[in-house]
Design brief:
The protein is of the alpha+beta class. The chain has three domains: 83 residues, 2-Layer Sandwich (Pseudouridine synthase), CATH 3.30.2350.10; 133 residues, Pseudouridine synthase, CATH 3.30.2350; 56 residues, PUA domain (Archaeosine Trna-guanine Transglycosylase, Chain: A, domain 4, Roll). The chain is built from eight helices and 17 strands. Strands 1, 2, 3, 4, 7, 10, 11, 12 and 13 form a nine-stranded mixed sheet that branches. The longest helix has 12 residues. It is globular and about 70 Å long.
Length: 305
């Protein structure tokens, strides 16, 4: 029996794409994968086609850490218009309800924002990618159907008013995974006794990727014309996205047994949780502290010395 031939090269790393408007996250992923000629690729949490900004794309061995990036906190910049509600909660849908927002001041907006800080329960919108009985909610919504959605616990750690003019509110929001900014905008408008819909949404940060530059699709395509060597220079190391995990250094003997799949005793290891594992030369992967104090391999990287 012949083996299925692998397509693409075994390039590994994380690329920070500045996803353009009107492009799905999956289409952006496929373009980046093709330009890098990567054998394997995955993104770390979808952005709506009407949202732009940071979309970390994991290539090769970096796909092993992508699940941990999905749970990372996010930072958004959002603009929403007061006085109207659309069917979709954003500018894509038609206006279905209006309510005057005349007289709302910047001071009033600033006074209600602190009430959204901290943990709260949020009901996901119908126009979302969540599934109900195997179908995406937005697919049901487009058929005019609405189903009951369970409230989910979210956390808003920062919320700042950037501007307010001509009924358009602009905020910077730092939040937990699973937070729907469209719903947040509607809830803020409700607190102001009016309605709203999102006009612009941009993701600025994902987890540990704070302060790292993003590249646009146009910039990436230009670099691709210079060859794979120049492309690879734009990749971040495999461990950058999980820097919030404690670091654990292993000597040669411990790293040998760990890479064989065995749990090892590491001096001064944390008492629980996940850790970043390194030997004297490289990042090994993610380990987990067991109840007996041993460090067990969780997701190891297949990297060259």
């Amino acid at each position: 029996m012949s083996r299925r031939k692998s397509h693409g090269r075994p390039v590994s790393g994380i690329f920070l794409l500045d996803k353009p408007l009107h492009m799905s996250s999956n289409k952006a992923l496929q373009i980046v994968k093709r330009l890098f000629n990567a054998a394997k690729a995955g993104h770390t949490g979808s952005l709506d086609p009407l949202a732009s900004g940071m979309l970390p794309i994991c290539l090769g061995e970096a796909t092993k850490v992508s699940q941990y990036l999905l749970a990372a906190d996010k930072v958004y910049q959002v603009s929403f218009k007061l006085g109207e509600r659309t069917a979709t909660g954003d500018a894509e849908g038609e206006v279905v309800e209006t309510k005057s927002s005349a007289g709302i001041t910047k001071q009033q907006i600033e006074s209600v924002l602190p009430s959204f800080l901290g943990e709260s329960e949020q009901v996901p919108p119908m126009y979302s990618a969540l599934k109900h009985n195997g179908q995406r909610l937005y697919e049901l919504a487009r058929k005019g159907l609405e189903v009951e959605r369970k409230a989910r616990l979210i956390r808003i750690s920062e919320i700042e008013l950037l501007s307010y003019q001509q009924s358009v509110v602009e905020l910077r929001v730092a939040c937990s995974k699973g937070t729907y900014i469209r719903t947040l905008a509607e809830d803020i408008a409700l607190a102001l006794d009016t309605l709203s819909y999102v006009t612009q949404l941009r993701r600025l940060e994902v987890g540990s990727f704070s302060g790292f530059p993003m590249l646009s699709m146009d910039q990436l395509e230009q670099i691709a014309e210079e060859g794979e060597l120049q492309l690879d220079k734009k990749l971040l190391p495999l461990d950058v996205g999980i820097m919030s995990m404690p670091e654990l250094r292993l000597n040669e003997d411990l790293s040998y047994y760990l890479r064989l799949g065995q749990a090892v005793q590491v001096p001064k290891a944390p008492v629980s949780g996940l850790v970043r594992l390194y030997d004297e030369k490289r990042f090994l992967g993610i380990g987990e502290i067991r109840s007996d104090g041993l460090v067990a391999p969780k997701r190891l990287m297949n990297t060259q010395a």
